[in-house]
Amino acid sequence: MGLWARITRIFRASTGAALDKMENPELVLQQTIRDMRDRVPELNNSVAQVMATERLLVKQKENLSTQVVDLDSKIKASIKMGRDDIATAYIGQLQQAQIDLERTTAQSEQAQIASKQALKARDNYVLNMKKRTAEAMQLISAAKQAKLQEQLAQTMETFNIGDDASTFNEMREKIDRRVAAAEAKLQLGTSSVDSQMQDIEREAMDIQSQDKLLEYKQNMGLLGAGGNNAGKQISSGSGAGNNNQNVLDQVLLNEKNENEQR
Known about the structure:
There is one protein chain. With 262 residues, this protein is mainly alpha-helical. It has two domains: 3-158, Orthogonal Bundle (Helix Hairpins), CATH 1.10.287; 192-261. The protein has helices at 3-22, 25-80, 84-158, 161-190, 193-219, 227-261. It is rod-shaped. The two termini are 96 Å apart.
């Protein structure tokens, strides 16, 4: 292959690729529809000319037929009047009129056939134009739908769902860590020495209140024979109170030692 042929092929390939990128199918189809519609008036004018020629020939045929009849009458009249010279002249005109009538009749028949063919061609073109227009509209709709799908695909490509998923996972992990830390602090607070001391103090106050109530009942003589048992219960309660007080002292001492160690 020669150098010029290779250069030509490269140029044509590049030009074709550029035209393919520039060519918009929707615009091309719309222009094709406009071109087909623009040819309809021109086609109608051509058909109208053919039909006008047919009607003109028909009119000429009618005139020639009338002329032949009229010349025939004149010839007969001239012969009756003994004017053979005039009859001979009319005969010459009659012969020419008959020749013209035959030629016009043939032309009129041909024009009639041409007119029918032109009308049929025009109707076929209009029918084909409507069909092509409908197909073009469907293709344009498909092109618009494809364009929307391409835009949606590009949007989906730019939307990286993986990054958002990692962000959600990271935030969920941070929140879980905070919740776990808060629960641990709450559990530590409820199990601390202060909490235990508060529980012991509340229990001691309840014991003291019960002891005081029993003392009032004993002084008022409401306990009766069960007073000794109540006294024993009071003593037992007092012993329990002393034991609770010892436990409280031991807890305070342990807390003091822990603070000193810190």
